[in-house]
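Aim 2, interim progress: modelling of the flavin-adenine dinucleotide-bound target.
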Amino acid sequence: MTTATYAGHDVEVDGEGFLEDPSEWTREMATEIARDAGIETLSAEHWKVVDFMRAQYAEKGTGPTVRVLGKTSGVSIKELYELFPKGPAKTAARIAGIPKPRGCI
Amino acid sequence: MANRIVVLGGGTGGTLVANRLRRRLGRAEAEIVVVDEDDRHVYQPGLLFVPFGLAHVDDLVRPRHAQLHTGVDLVERAVESVDLAAREVRLAGGTVLAYDVLVVATGAVLQPEETDGLTGPGWMERVFTFYDPAGAAALADAIAAFERGRIVVSVVDMPIKCPVAPLEFCFLADWYLRRRKIRDAVDLVFVTPLDGAFTKPVCNHELSGLLREKGVEVVTEFSTGTVDGPGGRLVSYDGREVAFDLAVVVPLHGGAKYVERSPGLGDELGFVTVDEHTLQSRSHPEVFAIGDAAGIPTSKAGSVAHFAGEVLVENVVHVLAGAEPTASFDGHTNCFIESGFDKALLIDFNYETEPLRGHFPSVVGLPLLRESRLNHLGKLAFEWLYWHVLLPGHDIPGVGAAMPERGKSFPERGRARERVR
Ligand SMILES: Cc1cc2nc3c(=O)[nH]c(=O)nc-3n(C[C@H](O)[C@H](O)[C@H](O)COP(=O)(O)OP(=O)(O)OC[C@H]3O[C@@H](n4cnc5c(N)ncnc54)[C@H](O)[C@@H]3O)c2cc1C
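Predicted structure of the complex, ligand included:
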């Protein structure tokens, strides 16, 4: 486990940069995590996905996979990849401060 | 009056649950009805061998009704929808079946049409799947005629049935091409949306090593967006391309279509939402799900349906008696991984424990996560067990529903020491 500083707060993150404790997350941190993940500015479309991820996590205890995002977030898989080129579910989860979506076995 | 238990689907899970329930409950206690749209039960694990001429589809199919015990009724109709509030199932043709307990066991369906171009030009000519009987048979002809070029085995996205089957396909393809003495003329490529050959670290390490040894190139984190049959390429959502001469694609999977037409029954992908331990619906206590249809974090495998069956039956009996379900499923999964040249590996794991080395089912037994001839014989014996032990709803002697800890090498106990108690 390592510590990262986002928006002036020290937070624990795992080896891939995911927040250990989703409750520490703030919207200010999201902007800085995004930069670390290679996204310079978060547009309204980015936020739509990030907010959706957080809502899903609050409801289900796990973030959605890309396929479920494409079906339910109102943003198509193609657009999701344009927004988050390095993998929408993973990157958006990291920016949203929730754990990496549980991969299926 | 007897309660009516309606089981939707007469495949692996539905058949074994109906048979176990029939033995457990007297006719005065419960009427048991299984609904399936046809009378052809396919031994799906056998489909892996069809493309290499090692099995024939006709030999993998038996009548469904013959697998069901006397006292279990089979209704040969497609399910149209479930009305959870009214506790009724609507069947094609308009018949309505009321239930006291519903067990959903309609498995997973293949959705090749959901991927751009997959079922377009080239489908069943140079783009195939071995996940259904027609595809497996057609692929056998294509592979027999294949002389040189690139064979690409691709998983579009998870979840899929038997997640190790595409890897087994690569191992068998390597063996098959060597036997035909054309291995040097063929590139074998495995394309996966995951970041490794398998999701769990110890097993991933072992399987990645085997792929390397057999000269199979691996492309990871590739989310297939488009299959271009005429152009011979897979294109990922992030714009990467993998060229092929022959593509073997495992299409997207979802729950049976009627789940979407049944409000409250399933999730976004059509899998039925149940508790991962009790297998009971959280909103409707009289509804259960088993096998590939269940939205629980296990592999979609016949062995899972077998182990879950014992738990589910226990809980159905509790619920019929007006009690709470107390039996708990641990996510036990057991898979043979055929690796070619008459060898196979075995993995055994559950929700908590990833596949580890050691032996199964105890300190003395089949080697885990290691290639051996014994495991290959185990894989072959599984077909007999399937028809004669799993489907009739018997327990496998010495193998309980819960994953055995004995015989496994737990990392925290030192690498070489297997747990003996
Ligand atoms: C290539 C391949 C290899 C595999 N290898 C292995 C292996 O080695 N080991 C292993 O354990 N598992 C393996 N599996 C997985 C295993 O076959 C499945 O997990 C298992 O059959 C699931 O059982 P089920 O009852 O959930 O679904 P199924 O057995 O698929 O049964 C579902 C049933 O529901 C019926 N149905 C669906 N929709 C409707 C409807 N609307 N109305 C009426 N009926 C309907 C279908 O006709 C079907 O009979 C493999 C699968 C494949 C494809």
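The longest strand of chain B covers residues 333-340. Residues 117 and 189 of chain B are 20 Å apart (CA to CA).
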